[in-house]
Design goal:
Blueprint lengths: L1 E7 L8 E4 L13 E3 L7 E3 L1 E6 L5 H17 L17 H4 L3 E10 L10 E10 L9 E8 L8 E6 L5 E3 L8 H8 L6 H7 L3 H11 L1 E3 L10 H10 L1 H13 L6 E7 L2 E7 L7 E2 L5 H19 L2 E4 L11 H7 L11 E5 L14 E6 L5 E5 L12 H6 L11
Parallel strand pairs: 5-16, 5-17, 11-15, 15-16
Antiparallel strand pairs: 1-2, 1-6, 3-4, 6-7, 7-8, 8-9, 9-10, 12-13, 13-14, 17-18
């Protein structure tokens, strides 16, 4: 579970924005909506985070920060050397000359190298990236800290400075790997991604955790196409079976989806009651196509207890379907491992069913910089007020200014 995110000089986020999702024990709850942030914690955080705001207000950039951190710890070692990392700074000359800082606080295993460990504790991963002055991106600092139950403060797992020197706790298991690490550690690559190449077990565990963040935010030019999508369904009968079960349950008018082989490539065939012949995917409704495309992200997060970070979940999906998708994340049968959903949306009708702790609002000022705040942080807001009516009326901000 992610429960705190800090973003600075990243796309439309110029000034440091802190998204702190934690709520105290006195805040009332509905079952499965607000859950402990780690084992034994009194503070809780939502399993669903819905991000609202006008077009180009920065909603996608919140999700993009999560996606970039996931990519960086997994794949930055494989990124072509001396090419820019896949992100943008705030688009002014002043901010090009300033560092970018991202920090994420999450629940991770207290004993990540112990087989069968289940107890979790807080972790904080932070990376600071250099100004862009024409000689490529560099990591100015990178660190991972954690706080096990018997610790009064955060303890270093590893720290890395701008010169590429790394300090790590003994249990990380570097030993003689440390000198090898510092020899191969590129200025623009993560310590974790680099250690993964050395088969360091801790790094591999954290890369696996980062891989459980599934998103439709694309950082590189290699977009998934329908061939990749359908190949995934063809290779996973469990995924296809789950898709058929849910597509019938939410009544999209489809009886069954089959993946067939045609000229050596997978094709999707949609059977409808009352029709003599199935429909191929290009001729299926846009909403059904979108559901089929986004379903693996939801399925994977729920199956692994990961994070689904989905931009514009409401696009082409009927508003009546969205509450059902959100409900999956608070249903212990559908979400036994504590998956979390981060989503951006323009579907204001959802506000009727969300808690104020589950809503973030993005607003862009006249200077083009995004501000991000939690609905529950607005002074004087009541739990029983009409969020939908007040949002549309402009009480909370985050709506287009017309005229």
């Amino acid at each position: 579970m992610i429960y705190r995110l800090e973003i600075e000089n990243f796309y439309s986020v110029r000034d440091r924005q802190v998204i702190d999702l934690t709520v105290g024990r006195k805040v009332p709850d509905e079952p499965g909506r607000l859950v402990p942030i780690h084992s034994g914690a009194e503070d809780r955080a939502p399993r669903v985070i819905a991000i609202y705001g006008a077009n180009a207000s920065g909603k996608s950039n919140v999700l993009r920060a999560i996606a970039f951190l996931s990519w960086f710890v997994q794949y930055s070692f494989e990124h072509k050397a001396r090419t820019l990392l896949p992100y943008q700074k705030f688009l002014t000359a002043e901010q090009d000359a300033a560092p970018t800082r991202l920090s994420i606080t999450f629940a991770g295993l207290e004993e990540p190298l112990k087989e069968g460990a289940i107890t979790t504790c807080p972790y904080v991963y932070t990376v600071e990236l250099s100004p862009r002055t024409g000689d490529g991106d560099k990591v100015l600092s990178e660190s991972l800290h954690y706080r096990p139950r018997n610790a009064a403060r955060m303890i270093r797992v590893f720290e890395r400075n701008a010169a590429g020197h790394v300090k790590a706790a003994g249990w990380v298991g570097l030993g003689r790997e440390l000198s090898v690490l510092e020899n191969i550690l590129r200025p623009d690559a993560s310590v974790i991604s680099t250690l993964g190449q050395l088969n360091n077990q801790l790094a591999l565990r954290f890369m696996q955790s980062a891989n459980a963040i599934d998103t439709n935010i694309l950082l590189t030019r290699f977009e998934q196409n329908d061939l990749d999508l359908l190949t995934g369904y063809a290779r996973s009968p469990e995924l296809l079976s789950a898709l058929n079960r849910d597509i019938r349950r939410i009544d999209l008018g489809v009886d069954q989806i089959q993946i067939l082989a045609e000229n050596g490539a997978p094709v999707a065939s949609f059977s409808h009651s009352g029709l003599d012949r199935p429909i191929r995917m290009p001729f299926e409704s846009h909403g059904t196509q979108q559901f089929v495309r986004i379903y693996p992200t939801l399925y994977r997060a729920l199956a692994l207890g990961g994070v689904a970070a989905i931009d514009e979940l409401d696009v082409a999906i009927h508003p009546s379907v969205l509450p059902e998708i959100i409900r999956w994340f608070s249903d212990p049968d559908r979400n036994p491992y504590g998956a979390q959903l981060w989503m951006s949306s323009h579907a204001v009708s959802l506000l009727d069913g969300l808690l104020k702790e589950e809503v973030l609002i993005c607003e862009k000022g006249p200077d083009g910089a995004s501000q991000i705040y939690r609905l529950g942080d607005i002074k004087g807001i009541r739990r029983d007020e009409n969020f939908l009516q007040n949002y549309i009326g402009g009480v909370y901000g985050g709506i287009p200014s017309i005229g």
